[in-house]
Design brief:
This protein is an all-beta fold. It folds into three domains: 1-84, no CATH class; 95-104 and 249-346, Jelly Rolls, CATH 2.60.120.10; 122-246, Jelly Rolls. It has one helix spanning 93-96, and strands at 13-16, 22-25, 49-52, 59-62, 107-109, 115-117, 125-127, 130-136, 146-152, 155-156, 159-161, 167-173, 176-180, 183-187, 192-195, 200-205, 210-216, 224-226, 245-246, 254-256, 259-265, 275-281, 284-285, 294-301, 303-307, 312-316, 320-323, 330-333, 339-346. The longest helix has 4 residues, at 93-96. The chain binds FE2/S2 (inorganic) cluster (FES).
Length: 356
């Protein structure tokens, strides 16, 4: 009979590794040298798991709870252990001493390159029926992704190409249809649509002021608008993700502590280097934590605060939060209604992996 693993810690261990060195991850949870083996598994059915670092400075999160299915690394399983998903008190003396950063136009800067962007207050450029602005890019500190806010007038947009990069379109308001290389996709509130590198996208908006966000897998991406609507599709590279065009579906919700999320785009092997999810945060403030991925969060509805080390900014529907890798933060839902967000993480495929 298999022995029971011991929970060494209800969160992962962050480590920076040395290229070529072998690390022996403790699988039994009994080692006193976590996350590594100290021989304590002797007499049990467990064996340590070897991992050889692929590069110098490789950053990893070794599983501490020993429940991961992707050992030796954390897969987020720890979040659903009772008492593991810790909450913070936004009214504590320490938190009360953190001031709300004032909005200066569309941009509110927080610590470590984190910021909140309010497209409603931004200056927009126009091409045909599309008014747009950049929300996330290299200039604003992103390393892996760009994001554009597009407001569409009723009718057919110009053709749009996002260069040599895959992109994910999310419909934040309005409805219509999208054409990619002759293929037509229905767009409704909450639709997520993959546009592969080199493909031409054209949107027929059925409602004035429809809003879509385009996340592109490069920090220096741009949108090229043209009248060439012949359409180009990379049909041979059909994505093997959940689907090219995905809708929000209550039945696909997964829990993460007291929060819920649904994956919209999953990074396929060798494919789109991003993952997109929709999440629900009930009235609460998570304990400040970090991620190894860069994250863009579109606030769909609800209200709250984005907290970093020494600052916080108010957020509500329509705002976008940019979060650099490893920046300590917490997103609080302060209103009576849940906060709904759509997140894009790069590089990565699992939005439940966090560390302290
Ligand atoms: S610490 Fe075990 S899955 Fe995260």
């Amino acid at each position: 009979m298999k022995d029971q693993a011991v929970i060494a810690q209800k969160s992962p261990f962050y480590r920076e590794l040395k290229k070529g060195r072998a690390y022996f991850w403790c699988t039994c949870g009994r080692s006193q040298k976590q996350p590594f083996c100290d021989g304590s598994h002797k007499g049990t059915t467990f064996e340590p798991q070897k991992f050889v670092a692929e590069e110098d400075g490789q950053e990893v999160l070794f599983c501490g709870c020993k429940l991961t299915k992707t050992g030796p690394f954390c897969d987020g399983s720890h979040n659903n252990i009772e008492g593991a998903y810790k909450l913070d008190d936004p009214t504590s003396a320490v938190n009360q001493s953190i001031p709300v950063s004032p909005k200066q136009g569309a941009f509110t800067g927080l610590d470590g390159g984190c910021y909140v962007f309010s497209p409603d207050l931004a200056e927009l450029q126009t091409s045909g029926t599309v008014s747009f602005c950049s929300v996330i890019d290299k200039e604003l500190g992103a390393l892996y992704q760009s994001q554009f806010y597009l407001r569409l007038k009723l009718g057919l947009s110009p053709a749009m190409v996002f260069g040599a990069h895959d992109a994910v379109v999310f419909v934040a308001s309005g409805a219509g249809s999208a054409t990619i290389g002759g293929q037509i996709f229905d767009l409704t509130l909450g639709t997520s649509l993959l546009v592969l590198a080199g493909e031409t996208l054209q949107i027929d908006a059925l409602a004035d002021d429809s809003v879509v966000f385009v996340s592109i897998c490069s920090s220096s991406a741009s949108i090229t608008f043209s009248d060439d609507t012949a359409g180009h599709a990379t049909a041979s590279n059909e994505p093997s993700a959940i689907g090219r065009c995905v809708q929000v579906d209550e039945d696909l919700k997964q829990s993460m502590g007291e929060r819920y999320f649904q994956m919209l785009v999953v990074k396929p092997e060798g494919g789109v280097p991003a993952a997109q999810f929709i999440g629900e945060i009930p009235t609460s403030k998570a304990v400040p934590h970090r991620h190894l991925y860069e994250e863009a969060l579109i606030v769909l509805s609800g209200s709250g605060y984005m907290w970093t080390d020494t600052k916080k900014a108010a957020v509500s529907g329509g705002d976008v939060i940019f979060l650099p890798r490893k920046q300590i933060h917490s997103l609080e839902c302060s209103g009576p209604e849940s906060l709904y967000v759509v997140g894009v993480i790069m590089p990565g495929d699992n939005p439940t992996i966090n560390y302290y």
